[in-house]
Amino acid sequence: MADPREILRSEALAGVPHGFLTGIGHEGEPDPARIAAGTELVRVKQVHSPRVVFVEAPFAGDDLPEADALVTDRPGLVLAVVTADCAPVLLADHAAAVVGAAHAGWRGAFGGVLEATVTAMIDAGASRDNIVAAIGPTIAQQSYEVDRAFRERLVEHDAANAALFTPGAPDHYQFDLPAYVRGRLESAGVGRIEDLARDTYVEESLFHSFRRATHRGEPTYGRQFSLIACPT
Questions:
Q1: Is residue 179 part of a domain?
Q2: Of 107, 191, 208, 214, which is the most buried if we count CB atoms within 10 A?
Q3: Which key words are in the record (predicted)?
Q4: What is the pLDDT of residues 54-108, one digit of tens each?
Q5: Mean pLDDT for the stretch of residues 113-124
Q6: Residue 166 in domain
Q7: How far is residue 132's CA from residue 149's CA, in Å, rounded to a whole number?
Q8: Dihedrals phi, psi of 229, to nearest 5 degrees
Q9: 229 within 8 A of 79, measured Cβ to Cβ
Q10: CA angle 138, 143, 145 (to 5 degrees)
Q11: What is the CATH number of the domain that holds 104?
C-alpha cells in the first residue's frame, strides 16, 4: 500500500533527498523509497540525550542504539528521527555528501545534541561553513507554556536565553523552542538555517502533538517522521 503522508520540503536542503512527513492517520514506518529509491530506513532509540551515532549500515534487528541524532556519508541509507513537538533538524553538506538528522527537544538541545551532530558531520568530512540545516514542524512559542523554574534554568545557563520567553499566565512563560534551536545551531557554526515555522500543536489536522494530546487526555503515542539521505 502506498504511503499517503504529505512530505514537506526545505529550500535550504534543495538537492538533498529529504522530507518532513505529516503524521495524522498514518502510523508505522514510512517507505524510504519516497525519499530516495533503493534505500533502507535507519532509526535509533531516542532518549532526549546529546548522543550521536555515525551510521555505516542499517542496525540489525530491533536492538537500536540509544541516541538522538544520526550522521552518515553512506549512500543507500535514509536517516530518520521521530517527533511530536520537539524540533526535528535535518542537516547536510551537499558538497561532501554528509547528512545528519537530530531530535532536539529542549533537553537535547540544552545538552548539546545539535553541536554534537555538527561535530560528527565534520568528523565524517563535512565543512562547517558548508553545513545547512532545516528545522521542521515544532511546537511554537504561542503553544509552549513553561513554568518559572524552567525559565530560570535556561537563563542561568545563558542570560541571552531570557529573550526566548514572553510572559504568560502567573508564574508561567511562553518559550520559543524553534528560536532556541536556531541559536544553538548558529553557535555551532551553521551558516544557513531554515525554520519551516509549522506549529505541531495548532496544526492538528497534520501533526501529532504530545502536549496537545496530554491537554485533551488523548493517547500520546503519535509521532511524525523526518528523513534525510545522502545526495548522489
A1: no
A2: 208
A3: Hydrolase, Metal-binding, Transferase, Zinc
A4: 999 999 877 899 999 999 999 999 999 999 999 999 999 999 999 999 999 999 9
A5: 98
A6: no
A7: 33
A8: -135, 160
A9: yes
A10: 115
A11: 3.60.140.10
